[in-house]
Structure formats: C-alpha cells, structure tokens
Design a protein that fits this description.
- This protein is α+β, with helices and mostly antiparallel strands.
- It contains 18 helices and eleven strands.
- The strands form three sheets. A seven-stranded antiparallel sheet has the order 6-4-3-2-5-1-11. Strands 7-8 form a two-stranded antiparallel sheet.
- Helix 15 runs antiparallel to helix 16 and helix 17 runs antiparallel to helix 18.
C-alpha cells in the first residue's frame, strides 16, 4: 500500500479545538481527511475520520456511530484532548463511511448550542482584553450559519457598531455564556476585527503565543490502522488556537504561495513598441492606469458610482464596464495582459455582487466609512493571518529541533512583518535553543517584542532564560515573574 504524505497539520485537540480545525479546513477549501485519535485514557477505541472536499464535510467514519453525520460530529466539538492529523487529498474514510454533505460553518454554529469548549472560548476572548471589535462586511455568508432567530438578532447587534467583547456579550438576550460563544464564533470565522478609526484595520489573531518551551524530543512516528504508515500527532502541546502546520522545507523561501499576501500585485508590463493597433495600445495604457488606482479603491470607486447609488444604477454601470473589461475580449497581441484584465474584472464583479446584495452592502459601507474596504486593506489583513501561519510552521520546526529552519522561517517572515511580537518572541526562543545562538540577538528580539507587547509572556520567558544564562539572575527572575 502506498505511503501516506506528511500531514499538512497535526497537533492535539487540547491546543487546537475541533471547531478551530474545521474552520481552517472550511475557509481554505481543503480536500483531504482529518484523523482524530482517542485520548490516552481511551487508547484502543479507534479513530474518528472525517472526509472533506473543498472545505465541505462529505463523509465520516466515527467511533460512536450515528444515523446522521452532522449529529455524529457534534461530540468532537466538546473533546478536550486527543491527537489529530490532517492529510491533504487522500481519502481515509472509504466507501464504508457515512456519506452526507455537511456545511462546516453551520455545524460549528450548531455545536455552540450544546456542550462546547468554553475553555477555548474564554482563551480566545481573553487574548483580546478590552479591544473594540467591528464586523467585517462580506467576511461570511450568514445564511450558511443557519442561525436561530435570537442569534440573528445578536448578529444585528454586532453589525450595528464597534464594541468590546464585554459590551457585545451584555447585549445578547441569550445570556452571557451563549453571548461569549457567538462572539467567539464570529472571531473564529474572521468576521470580527479590531477597530481603530485612526489606523488601517487589522484582523483578530487566530491564536496566541505559545506558552511553554518546546519538548526535548522530536515527535514519534506511528501508524494509522488500516492505512499506510504516517506521522503521529505531537505528544505534547501548548494552549493556542489554530492547527500547527507541518513544514514543507526548512527554507523561508519555500513558503506556500497562498501565504504571500504582503506584497502589492505586480503592475502590468509596458506595452511593446510595435505590433499594436492604436485601439489596442489605448486599451493597454488604460489598463496600466486602472491597475495603479485599483489597490486603494473601494467598490464604489471601482464602479464609478456614488455611495448612495441604487441597485439599478450599480448594475447599469457594472454591465457597461464588463463589456470593456471582460477577459474574453483579450486576444492576439493583448494576451500578455490577460491576467491583469482578469484581476480588474474580478474586482468589478465582486464590487457589483456586494453592492447589489442588501445584506452585504450595509456592513461593507460601514467598513468603507471606517477606512477599509479596499484590496490594500484586505491584503494587510491577509499579511497578519500569514504571519500567524508562518509562526505555527516555525513552532513545528522548533518541536522537531530544527532550530536553524525555524530561525530562517521567522527571519523571512519578519522581513515582511517586522512589527509582529509573536514572531519576534518565537525567534528569540529558537535562537536560545540553538547551541550557537547569540545572546545579543536574543536580547534584541525580546526587547523589540516587549516594546510592541509589554505583557508578552513568551518574550518575557525567553528573555529570562538568556539573562539567567548570562548570570543576571535577579533580572531573569523579574522576567519569569512577568511571564
């Protein structure tokens, strides 16, 4: 039987609750199989296996049998521990599994109405403190959540105006517990973000910093019964929020292209000096100018309509633009710029779809009024998400004692996100773990992290460890206490 590929994510439910894993799978449209092992106290019970296709649950083979797949998956949301591994592409459920298409977003929302991981809820909300949050228009399709009437009314409260988690919870007619769970749900689905009127918006972080040093040994290997040999999830874990990504390479330059949110899209090339008609040259030049402004335009600007424009006016303007910018009209000597035309057309279509949808237009308009709603602001959000994922990748490398790979990954990401306290703290710990790690670099990384986040526990811990190594015991103890 063929060898399984390495898992693209692995860990323990203690660190990454099932809801977090499922949200990750759904938002990234992953195809593959999620395997969940039992807790150590229940060794021998077998595994739960969940098949997903393009982010949608399609089949399952569950230890506790159920007539309906969605109902059978609900107990996994309350599981507090158990190793897991996510294998991309492969099907480990097979024909004998229970077949049923289940929307993961509706399943996550449904899970919060019963036994739930309130420890994870409190941990995520606790990381925010009193940060004011706002709803991100167009982030999710609320219809997919299949919310109950009172939950829908609470979503309207969240959409109404920016507020802290505590303020939102107090306005939930379902009570504090369910109010917290619903706020957690929208954070998990990236539908809430910190709100600062004077600054570009940034997303709610998916996970906090690791809170304990890496294990002293690399994770063991184990087998998936009735399947080819594969990696076992790590035996140890730290509280956090999202799946840990198994590295594909120790090189920072080998990061997946899907994570490259940080750079602005490349501009179209200059037109050739020969071979174009006057009309083709004018179109090429117009494309260059449109691409220059597209990144900082909101949907109203892209379509050239006022913010109070009605649906009919928006559609009329869109169809007029679509005739000019549809990729199908690009041929012959214009083929080199077809990808750029597709980008323009894609933005115009997204603008039309959002502004002609009553439910999406209101939240989007509020985002624009707060200074967001442009490709540039969306890219900044993606940069923070990407930094978090690269930090998770570095954590896997550290656990496997590939400290040089972790340092390379973190330094590469810091070139793009040099003001990320989590990345700096992880870099300090990776350097400390290396036999030849320089104390000056470790102190510099922790100092920069603590300037950005004075209460960053891991930065304090790493600084304490290097100070102790340097013989500065009193200073070290002070940082240990703060950690």
């Amino acid at each position: 039987m063929a060898e399984l590929p390495d898992p693209i994510a692995e860990g323990d439910l203690e660190r990454s609750p099932f809801a977090h894993i499922l949200s990750h799978v759904a938002t990234r449209s992953i195809t593959g199989t999620l395997v969940i092992w039992p807790e150590e106290t229940e060794a021998g019970r077998g595994q739960d296996r969940v098949r997903v296709e393009s982010g949608v649950v399609t089949a399952g083979r569950l230890v506790d049998r159920s007539p309906a797949l969605g109902k059978g998956l609900l107990p996994l949301f309350a599981r507090r521990a158990g190793p897991y591994a996510l294998y991309e592409t492969v099907d480990l459920v097979g024909e004998s599994g229970l077949k049923q298409r289940v929307d993961p977003l509706a399943l996550i929302a449904s899970s919060l109405r019963g036994p739930s991981r309130d420890d994870a809820v409190d941990r995520v909300l606790g990381q925010l403190g009193g940060v004011v949050l706002r709803f991100r228009g167009g982030a999710i399709d609320s219809k997919r959540l299949a919310l109950l009437p009172k939950e829908e009314r609470f979503l309207d409260v969240i959409r109404a105006s920016p507020a802290s988690p505590e303020e939102l919870v107090r306005q939930c007619e379902l009570g504090e517990v369910f109010g917290k769970r619903l706020v957690y749900l929208f954070i998990l689905l990236k539908a809430l973000e910190p709100y600062e009127p004077s600054r570009p918006s940034m997303p709610v972080p998916a996970s906090g910093p690791s809170e304990s040093p890496p294990p002293e040994v690399a994770p063991d290997r184990a087998s998936v019964p009735s399947a080819p040999r594969t990696s076992a999830p790590p035996a140890t874990s730290t509280p956090s929020g999202t799946p840990s990504f198994a590295p594909q390479s120790s090189s920072a330059s080998a990061r997946p292209s899907a994570l490259r949110f940080k750079e602005a899209p490349a501009p179209p090339p200059a037109p050739p000096t020969t071979g174009l008609t006057a009309e083709q040259l004018a179109f090429w030049s117009e494309l260059i100018e449109r691409c220059k402004s597209l990144d900082t335009q909101n949907y109203f600007d892209m379509l050239g309509v006022p913010r109070e424009a009605g649906t009919d006016a928006i559609r009329k303007e869109y169809f007029a633009l679509a005739k000019r910018w549809h990729p199908d009209r690009v041929s012959g000597p214009l083929l080199p710029i077809k990808p750029f035309v597709e980008r323009v057309f894609g933005h115009l279509t997204q603008a039309h779809d959002t502004l002609t949808d009553e439910k999406r237009r209101g939240p989007y308009l509020r985002a624009v009024q707060d200074g967001g709603g442009t490709p540039e602001s969306d890219r900044k959000l993606g940069a923070i998400v990407a930094a978090s994922m690269e930090n998770q990748k570095a954590e896997v490398l550290i656990r496997r004692r590939d400290f040089e790979g972790a340092v390379a990954t973190l330094r590469g990401e810091l070139e793009l996100n040099h003001e990320d306290a989590d990345l700096l703290a992880s870099l300090a710990w990776a350097l400390y773990s290396m036999p030849n790690g320089k104390a000056s670099e470790i102190l510099d990384a922790t100092e920069r992290a603590l300037v950005l986040a004075p209460k960053h526990d891991r930065a304090h811990y790493a600084r304490g460890m290097i100070l102790r190594r340097m013989g500065r015991e009193d200073d070290a103890v002070d940082h240990f206490r703060k950690a």
